Amino acid sequence: MLLAVVQPWPEGKQPTDAALMERILQRDSGALEALYDRYGRPVYSLVLRISQHPSSAEEIVQDVFLQLWRSADRYQIARGPLEPWLFTMARNRALDFLRLKREKQRRREDTDSDILPAAVICPDPEGDIDRSRRAEKVRALMISLPDAQRRAIELAFFEGMSHSEIASAMGEALGTVKSWIRGGLLRLRESLGEASS
Amino acid sequence: MTCEHLAPFYEEYALGVLEGKERAELEEHLARACPKCTPGVAKARWLIVQLTLAAPEAHASAELKGRIMDAVKGSAGAAGPSRAVPSLKNQRPPVESSMFPAWAWVAAAALALITGYTIRQMNNQNAQLTQLRKQMKQATMQNQALENQLEMDHMVAMVMMSPDSMPLKLMPKDKAMPMVHAYLHPHMGVAITADQMPSMSAEHTLQLWFVPKSGKPMSVAIFHPDAAGQIALVAPVNMPRNEIAALAVTEEPAGGSPQPTTPVAWMAAVN
């Protein structure tokens, strides 16, 4: 087995996500700890919002970070930045849990698509606004939407429903739901800047 | 469908709400690594994942991090920074090959053959599994499209049978064209049905308009006849019935137009 030398971080410098993933490839558990410190809270918040169950949410988060540790060699920087990759993996896992709970669908197997979410292109990596500012903008937008429109988007993102499932759950016409969601996404794109268009 | 026609659906696809024909078409473009749709959807995924940040901020228990790190350190190969792994130059020199007896070389060769065979079998099984997954995905998509159509047919039937619906006949300007039926319901929407419609190219679409008593026409729905030449859809009513002077259908470029760009092809007055 090839063994590697793990160097300590340069003092006062925050390693990038890519550098931490490189360290994980060298089996540096400190790098995973650093990634947990960076992303553990938003990942847990997302998973709890979807699962609505604190102890299950913790299990899912643990599963996500262990998957990151085990599958680090399958993460490629060319597929996009780590943050959306990690959030997408967490959302997929939590939605699997939700579907299982509802007995609507058998849990998906550990396929590549589970481990490796599809490619994401960050619209403007250099000028990307920081996460806390993005969070402010997204929350402000969601609050500003009419209740029904916000509910439709939440059912889509946090409960994994399709257009017709949302229409059925809300007792609304399919066309109405489609226009709510399309309008909401348009405003989200505008809110996060033209960079994402 | 062309990439231009699919572009407005990238974000709905990334969100996971898109269904039916548009979803199937877009997945077909993605499956062949379409140079326009693939990056378009990848950008849309970034936008959608930002909705993560709309989740109310919550804090996991302090023990969670410890459990994750314990699991990681318990797994093979973990090396924390505090216990850096020694460099290769400090390792013992390799054992001389002459120390292995002949039977060990034979055993090693046999093991290599078995391993090679096993890997090949696994690759074959993986290929079969991938094929099965593809077929399952296709069947699921077809099933979803049928469910959508069934639901739409049910909605059309409900609007048609409601005593509150106003039946209308949209007469074609071209006598060779079939008549289009509309049922205008004040709350459930407007149901449109037709049979024996001619097929249309993907570059064009039919667009239904409410023509108000005063002001500009308002777009209600964009639709295509299906492969059997049938139309059955329900669109929301976005104008009070007493303000609607007529229903009209025009042929527009794919994706629809903000205002009619071609002469009216079907029309019915609303009394």
Chart the SSEs and their pairings:
The complex is a heterodimer of chains A (197) and B (271).
Chain A lengths: L16 H9 L3 H23 L2 H17 L11 H20 L10 H4 L15 H14 L2 H13 L3 H8 L3 H18 L6
Helix pairs in contact in A: 1-2, 2-3, 2-4, 3-4, 6-9, 7-8, 7-9, 8-9
Chain B lengths: L2 H4 L3 H6 L4 H12 L5 H13 L12 H13 L27 H60 L4 E7 L7 E6 L3 E6 L9 E9 L5 E6 L7 E5 L8 E10 L12 E4 L2
Antiparallel strand pairs in B: 1-2, 1-8, 2-3, 3-6, 4-5, 4-7, 7-8
Helix pairs in contact in B: 3-6
Verbal overview:
The complex is a heterodimer of chains A (197) and B (271). Chain A is mainly alpha-helical. Chain A folds into two domains: 15-122, Rna Polymerase Sigma Factor, Chain: A; 124-197, Arc Repressor Mutant, subunit A (Orthogonal Bundle), CATH 1.10.10. Chain A has helices spanning 17-25, 29-51, 54-70, 82-101, 112-115, 131-144, 147-159, 163-170, 174-191. In chain A, helix 7 packs across helix 9 (174-191) and helix 8 (163-170) packs across helix 9. The radius of gyration of chain A is 19 Å and the shape is globular. The model of chain A is unreliable at 1-6 and 104-114 (pLDDT under 50). Chain B has 271 residues and is α+β, with helices and mostly antiparallel strands. Among the domains of chain B are: 3-54, Arc Repressor Mutant, subunit A, CATH 1.10.10; 166-269, Immunoglobulin-like (Sandwich), CATH 2.60.40. In chain B, 40% of the residues lie in helices and 20% in strands. Chain B contains six helices and eight strands, in the order ααααααββββββββ. Chain B has helices at 3-6, 10-15, 20-31, 37-49, 62-74, 102-161; strands spanning 166-172, 180-185, 189-194, 204-212, 218-223, 231-235, 244-253, 266-269. An eight-stranded antiparallel sheet of chain B has the order 5-4-7-8-1-2-3-6, covered by helices on one side. In chain B, helix 3 (20-31) runs antiparallel to helix 6 (102-161). Chain B is elongated. The two termini of chain B are 38 Å apart. At the A-B interface, helix 2, helix 3, helix 4, helix 6 and helix 7 of A face helix 2, helix 4, helix 5 and helix 6 of B.
